[in-house]
Amino acid sequence: MSEQISEKAESPEQISEILLVLDKEKMKIMAVKGIDENGKLETIEPSKKNQNQFMRVDKQGDLFSNFFSNFFSQLKNPTNFSFFKIPAPLSIKLAKEMQKQVDQPSPEGDKLMKQHEVKTPQENHKQENKNNMETTQSTPDTSEYKYKPEQIDWETMNNLGLSKEKLEKMNLLDPLLKGYKTNELVPVSLNLGTAVTRMDARLSLQSNDDGQVVVAIHGIRKEPNLNFEFFGHSFSQADKNNLLETGNMGRVVNLVNIKNPNETIPSIISVDRLTNELVALRTEFIKIPDELKGVKLNDEQKQTLMEGKPLYLEGMTSKKGTQFDATVQFNADKRFVEFQFDRSNTNKQTQDNQQNQSQEVPKTFRDKELDKEQYQKFKDGQTVYVSGLVDKKGKEYNGYITFNKQTNKTDFSFQNPDKIKEQAKPTEAHKTQTAVNSEGKTNEATKNIKEPLKSGQTNPNNRKQQEQQEEPDAPAKSKGRKM
Q1: Among 127, 289, 365, 390, which one is most buried in terms of CB atoms within 10 A?
Q2: CB distance 54 to 91 below 8 Å
C-alpha cells in the first residue's frame, strides 16, 4: 500500500525505507526507532521480530531530505552517529553485512556503506555550494523526481491526446514526474478504433509489476464508493457522513497492505473532490506545520491534526492582513492542511461542547445581559423573566426565556410557558370526567349513572342520577301527567 492509495496500491517496500545507524562509540549497527523528548536517539536490534518498530522513511528524494533535516536538527550529539537508508525488505540482511564491515573492514563492505550512507544537512550544504547548484521551483534538483521523462511511453500519451509539449504548456509534467497526481482535470481522448471517448480526468504515473512506468487515469465518479471495503476497512455511518460532508473521514484507521495481508498500516482517508475517488495517506507521511496563517500550533492542536480530526482556529491572518477564523483539517489527497470555512461554525460548536459545556449557553439575550442568578437558572434549563428588552422601534418589552439544550437555542415567550403548561393540565375534577367518559374507567360514586359525566363532575349532580346510583335496576319513573 502506498503513502497515497487510489486505484493501484504500492507496497511499503516500494515507497519506504529503513533508517539504520552506526554508533561510533559502540561501533554497533542498529535500526532507528525515533528520538525521545530529550533528543536522545532511540534504536533497536535490526532483527525480524523487531521489524514493526523500525522507523520507515519516504524514499523519494525531496520528502526524505526534508524529513532527515528536521530529524537531524532534533538529535542530541549528532556527530556520534552515521546514518544509512536501506530498502525495507533488505534491512535485516544489509544490517548484518554492515556490522560485518564494522567488525572486519573490506573494500566491498566500504563500498556498501558509502552506497547507503545518508549525508548530513551540513555535508549536503557544502556539496551544493561546491557545485554552485541552484534549486528553484522552475529548475528543481533532479533528486526530487520519482520518474524521468524518457521512462514515459509517449506514444500512448499521444494516443490520449497528451503530448509532452502539451503537458509542459499546462504545467502538468513536473508534478507527474514527482509522483503526484495532476492538481486539475485534464481532457483525455481514448481512441479505441471503433469508438472514440472523451473525458476529463486526473493523471498520475505508476510503476507496474514489470517496472515499467504507466499512466493512470483517474476518471470522475458520480459519488465515492463507500458501501464496499477499502483496503480492509468497512465504513461506519459516521465515516460516510464525514467523507460526504467534508471530504475527510476524520480519524486514523488500519488499512491492509495488499502486498502483505498480514500487515496493517495506520492511515487517514479523504475524497478526491475532483473525481470522487477515495485516497488514503499513511500517518507517517503527515507533516503538520508549526503555525497556520500566523497562529502557532501547540502540541495538542498538532496531535488533533495528526489524527485526521478537524480543528477550529481563531485569529488567523489572511494575505490581505485581515483576521479570520476557520476549521482546518489534514487532507490525504492534497497532502496538506486545508481550510473548511463552510464547516467552521459547526465544528466550533462541537469543539466548544467538548471543552466546556457551559460555554454554549449565552449570557446575553437580545443585547440584554443576564445577572448571575438569572444565568444560573437559564443554564439549568429553567424559565427566566427578562425585562427591559428593546424592539426595533425602540420600545421596551418584557418576556420569558428558556434555553433548549436539545436545539442549543433560546425559546422566547411573552407569557410564562410554565404557567401555560400548568393551565393546560387537567384539574383533579377534569381527570375524573376524562377517565370515565374517554378511557372507560370506573368511578365508585358515579358508576351506575347512565349519562356521560359533565366537566368537573365526581358525584351525582341531580335527583335522577342519585336514584340511578342507589337503585341501578329500578325502572325509570314515568314523566306522564297524573290523571
Answers
A1: 365
A2: yes
Per-residue pLDDT tens for 401-426? Answer: 888 876 677 888 888 777 665 555 55
For the beta carbon of residue 340, count every other beta carbon within 10 angstroms. 19
**DSSP codes, 435-479:** HHHTS----TTTTT--SPPPTT--S--SHHHHHHHH-TTSPPPP-
CA distance 436 to 413: 35
Instruction: Specify the 3-state DSSP secondary structure of 234.
Output: coil
Q: Which residue has the cell 428558556?
A: 402
Distance CA 400, CA 417 (A): 8
Furthest C-alpha separation in the chain:
147
Q: How are strands ordered across the β-sheet holding 409-413?
A: 384-390, 396-404, 409-413
How far is the C-alpha of 274 from the C-alpha of 250, rounded, in Å?
A: 19
CA distance 400 to 418: 10
Cβ atoms < 10 Å from Cβ of 182: 19
Helix (H) or strand (E) holding 315: strand 311-317
Q: What pLDDT, on a 0 to 100 scale, did the predictor assign at position 417? A: 75
**The pTM is what?**
0.43
Task: Sort residue 101 into left (φ over 0), alpha (ψ -120 to 50) or beta.
Answer: alpha
| Residues whose CB falls within 8 Å of the CB of residue 353, separated by 6 or more in sequence, listed in order | 360
Cell numbers 346510583 correspond to 469
Q: Is 82 helix (H, G, I), strand (E, B) or coil?
A: strand
